[in-house]
Design goal:
globular; 10 helices; mainly alpha
Length: 286
């Protein structure tokens, strides 16, 4: 199994054909010394090639390695680009059929850029920031649309996203959730089933078989589906946190921090959109 996040799924922060560090001892602070000297993971993508070929172990260079500061700065830049794009779209694109069309086009472009970056072997800041900008335009238009009908919904969705993210980080850092291979397999199975059901629901709505959005209606059923989607978003965040933590511990290259920022942005956008729908549902039923 690999991360649900396409950014990490190809080679990001993983080894042994599984999740980085799953069912293994943490490497940071090893009493025996540098983890590369022990080389317990022959498939570590960041391990020097001479170690993998049986040469005498050498400690990795301290420079050029990803740090938490790198991840924080890149994430702030990426999320800031999303926020700027959303603000400009909100201000410059009034609610209309034209703005909806532009939002749909921006979403398609963002998806294409995200897919291109996901299949690249190296991170491209231009692609990542381009994705963030177009995603921001999409979010700005739909946020304004929701706000025009449910005043204050976007602000509440932002607070909800921040609350979910903070709570997930707290739970993860406190060790209340152990991100193991079993945990990831079960979560991914649920996530794939959810996405498949949502795809079928979309087709049924498109062909007129299901009315009022089907499972994505603005009634109680839609609220339950929205809550499930947000819980899945929190699950994706725990995988992201684990991947980033292991990437830092095992000496991922500094440019991998762009992938970390990209992955977090994808997950946070997921949570925000679902939170926006959930706020609208609860506001409709007041």
């Amino acid at each position: 199994m690999r991360s649900s996040n396409p950014v990490f799924s190809r080679r990001g922060f993983s080894r042994d054909n599984g999740y980085a560090g799953f069912n293994t001892a943490a490497q940071a602070g090893y009493a025996q010394g540098n983890p590369y000297a022990q080389n317990p993971y022959a498939q570590n993508p960041y391990a020097p090639q001479d170690l993998q070929q049986g040469a005498p172990p050498q400690a990795p260079a301290a420079t050029g390695r990803m740090t938490m500061d790198d991840v924080v700065m890149r994430s702030a830049l990426t999320l800031g680009t999303v926020a700027v794009g959303a603000a400009l779209a909100w201000i410059l694109l009034p609610v209309s059929a034209t703005s909806y069309g532009l939002a749909f086009g921006a979403a398609i472009i963002a998806m294409v850029l995200a897919l291109v970056q996901s299949f690249k072997r190296t991170p491209s800041p231009a692609l990542i920031l381009g994705y963030a900008a177009f995603e921001g335009v999409f979010l700005g238009v739909i946020s304004e649309m929701y706000n025009s009908r449910w005043s204050g919904a976007p602000f509440q969705a932002v607070l909800g996203t921040m609350a979910v993210s903070a709570a997930t980080l707290l739970v993860y850092k406190a060790g209340w959730v152990r991100v193991t291979a079993r945990y990831a397999r079960i979560g991914m199975a649920i996530a794939m089933a959810f996405i498949l059901v949502m795809a079928v629901n979309l087709l049924l709505v498109a062909f007129g078989v299901a009315e009022d959005g089907g499972l994505r209606s603005f009634g109680p059923l839609g609220a339950i589906v929205g809550i499930i989607a947000i819980v899945l978003g929190a699950f994706f965040l725990t995988l992201d946190f684990k991947q980033i933590e292991d990437g830092i511990a095992y000496g991922a290259p500094r440019n991998e921090s762009w992938l970390a920022a990209f992955g977090l942005t994808l997950t946070l956008v997921w949570i925000y959109v679902e939170m926006l729908r959930l706020v609208a549902i609860f506001s409709s039923n007041d």
